[in-house]
Design goal:
single chain; 196 residues; mainly alpha; two-stranded antiparallel sheet; two-stranded parallel sheet
């Protein structure tokens, strides 16, 4: 409990520190495609509770409400692609973290409409923990286009969860070479998934 409060305090300070980056990004999004500058979407959290996730908008206003892997690249804002590449679009999720909707590390939250993913995550008890801003599947390159495999990788994270692994995942979100080390660390479990 004390650790979680300390982490929230650190994130609040961090949010204040990065606010100039957010302000610049908001202005650039507005100049390219107007309002709104924030992207708000319903996602599934712990115990399948629905919550609203906050991100900087990286796609045009007329973009369909679907998973990222289902969206054509023509829907991306010019500046939006840059934001996604350097992960700045994820920064407003600090608000979700402060509210208690998500953890820093955990399975990325899916849409309520992604029934296949919801089904496989239910089978593997993925909804027993809070989703995360970043996660194992994300850094290893698994996405929601393969719901069954994604849920199995989420399960590996739950079974192997540790402070060390969480730190590695966080660093690997920004430092790609570390992703290979994580894959090696979990090679046995990942091999079982890939051979099923």
């Amino acid at each position: 409990m004390l650790f979680e409060l300390a982490l929230k305090f650190i994130f609040l300070i961090g949010f204040i520190v990065i606010s100039p980056i957010l302000i610049i990004s908001i202005v650039l999004i507005f100049l390219e495609d107007g309002m709104p500058v924030l992207f708000v979407q319903k996602r599934l959290g712990r115990h399948e509770n629905v919550f609203s996730i906050f991100k900087l908008r990286t796609m045009k206003n007329d973009t369909p409400d679907k998973g990222t892997h289902e969206i054509d690249k023509n829907h991306y804002l010019n500046f939006g692609s840059v934001l996604r590449k350097i992960k700045v679009d994820e920064l407003p999720q600090i608000l979700n973290f402060l509210k208690g909707d998500i953890n820093l590390i955990g399975p990325r939250p899916g849409l309520p409409s992604q029934s296949d993913l919801r089904h496989h995550r239910s089978i593997h008890n993925v909804f027993d923990i809070k989703p995360g801003i970043t996660g194992l599947s994300q850094v290893l390159g698994y996405d929601m286009s393969d719901p069954e495999t994604l849920a199995k990788v989420d399960k590996i994270y739950i079974e192997r969860k540790s402070i060390r692994l969480d730190i590695m995942i966080f660093v690997a979100t920004f430092f790609k070479p570390l992703r290979k080390r994580i894959a090696i660390l979990l090679a046995k479990e990942l091999k079982q998934i890939n051979h099923v």
